[in-house]
# Entry
Amino acid sequence: MTQRTLVLLKPDAVRRGLTGEIISRIERKAGWRITALELRTLDQDTLEQHYGEHQGKPFYEPLVEFMASGPVVAMIVEGERVIEGLRQLAGPTDPIAAAPGSIRGDYGVIVRENLIHASDSEESSAREIKIFFPGQA
Ligand code: GDP
Ligand code: MG
# Structure
C-alpha cells in the first residue's frame, strides 16, 4: 500500500542541526522516498490551517508561536505504509514516553519541542499536503 505523508522537521530540529540525522533515518527505510522538500518559515495562516483541530486547547497558542519561531523543513515522503511507519519512527507526542530508537525518544525532552510532525491518517495527509505543497496535492 503506497501512501504519501506530510512531514515537518520543527524549528527545534532545524536550530539544533538535527535535520540531516532525521532525514537520513527516513531515507534508510527501504523503499521510502522524499518527493518534495523545502526549508520554510511558517506564517500564522498556514499554522492555523495545519493545527486547526487544536484551536482552543491550552497548548495551541504556544505551539503556534513555537512553530513560527524559525524555519521548518517541510517534506512529502512516499512509500509502503509510510503514514503509520513515520508515526512509529517519530514516536509518541511526549518525548519522555517515546521509546529510545524513535526520533522523539532519542532527541526530545519537552512535549511542545518534539522535533517532528507526521500526518496521522490518510485524511490528514491529503489535507496537509494541500496546505504545504498545493502543486502536488
Ligand atoms: P502529534 O500528532 O504527535 O504531533 O500530537 P498532537 O497532534 O496531539 O499535537 C500537536 C503538537 O502540539 C505536538 O506535536 C506537540 O508539539 C504539541 N502538543 C500536543 N499536546 C501538548 C501538550 O499537552 N502540551 C504541550 N506543551 N504541547 C503539546
Ligand atoms: Mg497530530
Helices lie at 11-15, 19-28, 44-50, 60-67, 82-90, 103-107, 122-132. The first strand starts at residue 2 and ends at 9.
